[in-house]
Amino acid sequence: MASDYKIPAQTSIGHVHLQVADIQRSLDFYCGILGFELVTMYGEQAAFISAGGYHHHIGLNTWNSLGGPPAPKTSAGLFHTAILYPTRKDLAEIFKRVYESGHPITGASDHGVSEAIYMNDPDENGVELYWDRPKDQWPKKSDGSIEMFTHPLDLQNLLSELED
Questions:
Q1: Residue range(s) in the chain whose domain bears CATH number 3.10.180.10
Q2: What's the whole-model pTM score?
Q3: From 13, 35, 130, 161, which residue has the greatest number of CB atoms within 10 Å?
């Protein structure tokens, strides 16, 4: 269906709501490791967490998934939730925190426009932690469009952000 409508440029994704098998296990990951803050519990079956006091960036619930297995990787569904950090140093800090926690990291990539660390939450939902390079540094193709790619991220170079 073709349309002349374009979503406003200021539009943003307000939150993601995940079905999880165990609320406390998810809170241990999202709050304990990643540093989100618990805003409120909705009974014993849901939790709302945020960065900086927003009503919630992530909702966690067990309404239909209490004790259940992870969603199959080979079916339609959520690929990952991407959490945008304001600076490269912030990405370095969370990478160091996750690494020191012993939580497995599944990948680390330089995409030209951004740098990203990948992992799974306790329910095998994909999580991307990333920062965007300034727009004027995004690589361009000869036709002027953005050139995105996937190259290995130099993690030692990323950690050098913390040496100040």
A1: 16-67, 80-164
A2: 0.92
A3: 130
**Domain boundaries 16-67, corresponding CATH code:** 3.10.180.10
Distance CA 83, CA 76 (A): 21
Among 78, 28, 77, 30, which Cα is nearest to 56's? 30
Report which of 36, 48, 45 is spatially closest to residue 66, judged by C-alpha positions: 45
Sequence-separated contacts (24+) of 57-60 with Cβ below 8 Å: 57/14, 57/15, 57/16, 58/15, 58/16, 58/17, 58/18, 58/30, 59/15, 59/16, 59/17, 59/18, 60/17, 60/18, 60/20, 60/23, 60/26, 60/27, 60/30
pLDDT in tens, 23-34: 999 999 999 999
Q: For domain 80-164, is the CATH number 3.10.180.10?
A: yes
Please tell me the predicted confidence (pLDDT) of residue 3.
Answer: 83
pLDDT for residue 1 is more than 70? no
Of 20-29, 69-78, 85-94, 136-145, give the lowest mean pLDDT range. Answer: 69-78
Main-chain dihedrals φ then ψ at residue 61, nearest 5 degrees: -145, 155
Judge contact between 158 and 164, C-beta under 8 A. no
